[in-house]
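Appendix C reproduces, verbatim, an entry submitted by the partner laboratory led by Prof. M.T., so that reviewers can inspect both the input and the predicted structure.
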Amino acid sequence: MPESSTFPRPAPATRTVAVVLAGGSGQRIGLATPKQLLKIAGKTILEHTLDVFEQAPRVDEVLVMMNPGFVSDAEAVVQRAGLAKVTRVLPGGTSRNATTQLALDALSHLPADTTNVLFHDAVRPLLSQRVVDDCVDSLDRYAAVDVAIPSSDTIIEVDDDVITDVPTRSRLRRGQTPQGFRLSTIREAYERAWADPGFEATDDCTVVLRYSPGTPIHVVAGEEQNMKVTQPVDIFIADKLFQLSSAATPEFTDRDRDRLLEGRTAVVFGGSHGIGAEVADLAEKHGARVFRYSRSATRTDVSDPAQIAAALEQAHSATGRVDFVVNTAGVLRIGRLDGTDPATIEEALRVNYLAPVHIARASFPYLAQTGGQLLLYTSSSYTRGRAEYSLYSSTKAATVNLTQALADEWSGDGVRINCINPERTRTPMRTKAFGEEPAGTLLSAGKVARTSLDVLLSDLTGHVVDVRREDPVAAVRTRGTEEGR
């Protein structure tokens, strides 16, 4: 039977390509290295950004437009991270518009009517999957989309430092990326733009707005944390947002945990009580071989390097491997520093800080063999020293810095290290210090253990993962989405 309209052909599938614009030099903030190659939370900003698209089900391919002098550096990032969706790393142009055109040239082999393209700043590493999905969904109905958030500040227009106008704030939005287009739309707009001798634009939606004025540009609700790392303070803020980003922690199913822990060996220091015992129990439940060490059960002093080495060697000799090392051991001594005796000071420093240092040093050779992970624990008091907590707060802050430093040191060796930051948790150590506290005001050690195990099974490194009764980042995202509607 000849083909006819009785059996219409299915519409061709649409392909979505993410173009990551990484052409910045870093000179604006006095850096010798481009911002996108700076490390935050154990990875370069570029890798964090690329990983968003690697994990995005609706994105088929990723193209990186890199500062010409650092193409090989970006290629190394892609190769080391195993980013399979990145098909090419190409040199960018001398302007944003030139770089976009180079990307369009590189995509010339793709059909313009069935290809979507998302242009995203490499230095926006905190992009969420929700925003990516909304952009792709919107391109089913619109030929161009932008991402924006409401302006919380009043915007003024000035001429020679004198206010000339104050636009109505309710109509204003702060633009972000991605900016998404049907490939045919952005191609045609640029063709017209280059014919204009006075062509100049700071972003791609502006090009469509000016040179394809009949094309509606739909606005997708962005998020406050989808910030652009531009100034030195932005690096600090982005790092803190990654620390808070417990929402980024994968949540594995029980079946996943069974599969990933079978045949693995875990060593848990402080494994007799509280969080350590819960982590050990949960890992054992899902098939791991767990070795628990503590002062009370095995007379193991975590501040003694020789005893740490002996514990790790015992686990390795018994199973032939060490995949995970967890240290939950700690002491909490409350009181004014001027009233604390030297022996108590020494104990706090040895157990809360030197022990993680010695454990990290002794664990590294074993974890390098298995591509394993070290997991440490901090406290919410690490962010700001509190009166009568000077020793505890400062040693927990040191543990955070140790985690981030070692994530950089070990990145080339395939060894990961992360730090769990639980909210106030019901443990024997806390009960001893504070007595019984009202029900419902504390985290359960079991919840902390579940998050800890999922972090161990993830590919995260250099993260300080908050565990809270309410996720603060998710709450901010929810508020930002609602405000943008």
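The first helix runs from residue 45 to 54. Additional entries are available on request from the coordinating office.
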